Amino acid sequence: MKTTDLAELAAFEAVARHRNFRKAGEERGVTASAISHAVTNLEARMEVRLLNRTTRNVSMTDAGAMLLADLSPAFESIRSALDALNQYRDTPFGKVRINVPNSIAPFVLGPVIGSLIQKNPKLALEVIATDQLVDIVQDGFDAGIRLRESLRDGMTAVKIKPRLRFSVVGSPAYFSKNPIPEKPEDLMHHRCIKNIFATGKSYPWVFNDNGNNIEFEPIGQISLHDHELMIETALAGVALAYVWEERAKPYMESGELISCLNEWIPFEDWLYIYYPTRKHISAGLRAVINALRATPEI
C-alpha cells in the first residue's frame, strides 16, 4: 500500500468517527479542505461513495460503514503499536484532548497542569472546558471529567481529586440587611440566585439532614449559568449564591463573602476521568490519569 493510500484511509477514518471534516482536520493537523480532498480521491479510486455530505451533516453510506468497521481495529492497533514506543522515550509523547466542566476546571486541572507538563515536556495537552454534556467519542476527546451521575455505559472511570462540595455565600453588605440563614427553610425569606444549566433547565440547591436530601428551588428574579457571575452577583450584595466552595474560597478568606449552612451541605460524589472501555490508552493519557488520580487515603 502506498503512503498516499494510507493517508486517505486515515482521513476517511477520522471523518467517519467525528462526522465532521473540520474536526477530522484538527485531529490530523491539516485543513478541512485537505481532508475532503483525500476522501474524495479515495472514493474516486475505489469507485464507490463512502460518505453522504450535506451543508450541515456527514453520514456514512453502507459501503463507508463496512469500511470503517474493518479500519477501526486496524488503526487502533497502529496507534497502540506507535504508543508502545513510549517505553523507549524518557517521557510520553503526543496530544491528549480532555473535556471538563467549565465550572470546576480551574481547581481540578489547574493544580496539576504545571507539574504534568514539566515532567512530560513532549506531551501536548488540549483542554476544552464546557458545562454542556458532550459525547467524548463523537467529539474526538481522549477522555472527559464528570461526576459519576453523568457517566454513560461503556466507559472506564477513574476516581480523581479533589472531592467537591457547594457553598451558600453572601456578602457582608447583604447580611447587614438580612439575617444569616440557620437552616435550609430560612432561604425562603432570602433573595437567592437560581442555578441553571446552559439549556436553561434549573437545578436545586441540595442540603442534607441526617442522611435525607433537602432540595431548595429558588424562584427569584435572577437565573444564572456561570458560577463566576454568580459570585460577582453575590459580591454586589444583591443575593445569595450556591456555588462550588473552591471557587468562592478566595473571597471567603478575604472576608468579601460569608458562607452559611455549611453543616447542611454534603460533599458531592467523586469526580471521575473517564474514557471508552475498549479504547487504547496512550502513555500520554496514562500520565494525565496518574496526575489526577485520587490517592487511596482520600
Structure explained in plain terms:
37% of the residues lie in helices and 21% in strands. By secondary structure, the chain is α/β, with parallel strands linked by helices. It has a five-stranded mixed sheet with strand order 4-3-5-14-6, with helices on one face. Helix 1 packs across helix 4. It is elongated and about 75 Å long.
Q: Can you write the helix and strand succession as a string?
A: HHHEEHEHHEEEEHEEEEHEHEEH
Number of strands: 14
Main-sheet strand order equals 4-3-5-14-6
Task: Give the structural class.
Answer: alpha/beta
The biggest sheet, with number of strands, parallel, antiparallel or mixed sense and barrel status, is:
5 strands, mixed
Distance between the first and last residues' Cα: 52 Å
**Which bin fits the share of residues in helices?**
25-40%
Cα gyration radius (Å): 24 Å
Basic shape = elongated
- What share of the residues does DSSP label as strand, in percent? 15-25%
